[in-house]
Every structure is written in C-alpha cells, then in structure tokens.
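User: I'm writing a short report section on ligand binding and want a predicted complex to refer to. Could you take this sequence and flavin mononucleotide and write out the structure as tokens? A short remark afterwards would be nice.
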Amino acid sequence: MALTAPPPDLPVPSRPLRRWVLGVTGGIAAYKAAELIRLMVKAGLEVQVVMTAAATRFIAPLTFQALSGRPVATDLWEASEGAGMDHIDLVRQADAVLIAPASADFLARIAQGMADDLLTTLVAARSVPLFLAPAMNQAMWQNPANQRNIALLKEDGAYFLGPGEGVQACGEVGLGRFWEPTMILDALAPVLGWENAPDLRGKKVLLTAGPTVEAIDPVRTLTNISSGKMGYALAAAAVACGAEVVLISGPTALPLPEGCRMISVRSANQMRDAVLDEIHDTDLFFAVAAVADYTPANPSGHKIKKTGEALTLKLVPTPDILATVAALPRPPFCVGFAAESQNLEEYAKQKRLAKKIPLIVGNLAQRALGRDDNEIILFDDQGSHPLPPASKSELAHHILKHAFALMRQHTLSS
Ligand SMILES: Cc1cc2nc3c(=O)[nH]c(=O)nc-3n(C[C@H](O)[C@H](O)[C@H](O)COP(=O)(O)O)c2cc1C
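Assistant: Sure. The structure tokens for the complex follow:
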C-alpha cells in the first residue's frame, strides 16, 4: 500500500498529548482500531473509546473496553456518572481527539457541525486538536461531496492521517484505505512527546530487516527467529519524518510499512547485492537485519535423502554487509544493531569498533527477538546511552533522532 499523503504538519503542543478520545465509526476497518488501541495503551497513552452506533455493528464495545481498560461510551443519552454531561466531560478530560476509522458519513456530519450522536457532539464541543484517519471505498473517497467535506474540515483545522492506496475490503483498488495502526502512531509521534521528529525530507534512508534464509537444499534452510519488527518500526518512523525509505527485507510476516519501497530478499548474498545496488545515494543506513553469519558451502540441487547416518554440513561465512558499506569511499551514516545473549555492553562496543561505525544499537536477543517491545542501549563515541523499555515504534523514533543528531555533528565536523 502506498502512502498517499505526506505526514501532516502537526500542531506543536506545549506538552505531549497523552490523553486521547479515540472515536470509532462504522466501517470494515473498525476492527483495526483494536490494534491501534493496543499500541496506544502500550505507548503509555490514556485512551477513552467512543463508538458510533454503526461502529458497534462491526465490532463489540467489549473488545475496546478490554484493550483500553475503560468502559466504552456509545450513547449520548446514557450518562456514566456526575452531571450527565458525557459529551462535554469526556472531551474536557482529553488532550486530543482521534477518529479512526472515520467514515464518509461521519466526515459529512462533522463538516456540517452536526451533533446528533455522542461522538459528533463531542467533536463539536471540543477545544483540542482533531485527527481524522479516514477509511472508505475508493468511489466514496473520490465522491465530490466527500471531497468538499474534507476540504471544509481541513479549513477548520482538522489533521488528516491518510488514507492510503491499495486493495480495499470490497476488492476494488484505489484511495481510501485505512492507514495501518503503526503508521498512524508514527505520524502522531511528534505530538506524543516521543521525540522532536528530525526533519528527514530530502534524505534517503536505507534499512535491512528480518532474518536471512540460507538454502541447504531445495526444501531445507538455515535461518533465525528475527521477526523484522524493529527494522519495520524504524522504516515507518523514517517515513513519518519525511525520508525516502527503502526497506530491504528477508522473509517476515509483517505488512509493508506505508510509504516505503520494499525489496524482498532471502539470502545474505542477495541482501548484500540489494544493499550495494541502493547505497550510492543513501544518507542513512540502518543494518537491522539478523543476517546469517554462515551459509552452506555447497547447497544441494536436490533434496538430501535421509540415510540414517550423521550429516555434516560445511558452512562458509557470509558477506559482512555493514562492514562493506562502512568501508565504502563515501559511506552513508551507518547504524548497526547488536543482538547478544550475554555481555551486551562489551560485545556491542567491540562490534562498533570492528565495523568502524559511529552508532550501534545494543539489545539482548532474548529480550528483543519477535517481541513488540524492547530495551536498548545506544553506543557511540560519547559512550553508552540506555533507553527505558518501550514499544519498538517508540524506540524507533528515539534511535532515529539520536542517529540524525550524530549524523549532523559528523557532517559539521567533517
Ligand atoms: C458492510 C459495510 C461496510 C461499510 N464500510 C464502510 C467504510 O469502510 N467506510 C465508510 O465510510 N462507510 C462504510 N459503510 C457505511 C457506514 O457504515 C454508514 O455510512 C454508517 O451510517 C456510518 O455511520 P457512522 O458514521 O455513524 O459510524 C459500510 C457499511 C456496511 C454495511
């Protein structure tokens, strides 16, 4: 799916927006709000879910209650407590309102200032920023009336997150797809206080991610348990900061972060070739992939038959992609990753020096691989910088910010 709108120029709040009303409206993408809530809660945000009546036809409020840890509000006439003014109270306690997914019908109603259910009333009564993540069929999106409503809402100061372009739930292809939840969070990063997003417009960021897969014979492989989540999170964060992003990935089960160009590879050799093809105009290179250190010397052209005897495989070292890039005459700013199962600090520092790179991100393999969150330490010329445990999305923004600041220092001093 392609990113069809640049990351929006977000407001610059005086303090991070931590308390959110998440409005869910009626559309197929309502189920994706569940993942969005999970990620928001994981990122330490307070999320009060409010659903339209139509949204409750697509997904039960109980799902959102379980994920947000709060009762879901759905009815203008059913006051939870206090003075019975939920439509005002809910939004007074919030720093921002996000409608995700936002239906065509909902956009139409709020563009006209209507207040005929709890969510529209709450939007009308708010004085905090409004973010809209639309999701609808491509013809509904293109509909002139819908486009007029969007123009009105933008004029009134609403921030649009998406939509994306691609195959839709109805089978049609075009504009109107809901942005993936990670993409929405990445785009919101600057207002969440995760970082002051570096401005990467005009910069090319190249990343490797996921495992590599080395053939033993046509049906058997050597690989590792890397999920690709950290690399994909970094790619999404770089897109959100305006970079041109190329993601060279081994096989993973993850959706392509929006706005990236992806090159799929399997083996370490293929990954090296793809990196060298792309590296010439790259500004920042993140070697996140868990590249196999060894590959079978002579992969068999046919399936190796079971004989009952011990089988000896001869393995030869794979190319060192990061060291190769770092040794180029005009290398980009290189960031490596070290996943170790022990002696993290010692091994990560050694690896940074051996590869002659300015920054390495150290993490414990057992704490990192396959998980949604991580705990990392950044190692550079100044020493080590541990970061508190956080989601990989949030850490990606911190890594990007640190790398960009170092890159600027290097450029200024060279
Ligand atoms: C199966 C189904 C899927 C729908 N998907 C969408 C959608 O993705 N986007 C949209 O704008 N409307 C969609 N609609 C129409 C909305 O549900 C309808 O306009 C509804 O009135 C929206 O109410 P709300 O804006 O109060 O949530 C869909 C309707 C049905 C029956």
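A remark for your report: The domain at 204-300+309-413 is CATH 3.40.50.10300 (Rossmann fold). The chain has two domains: 19-192, 204-300+309-413.
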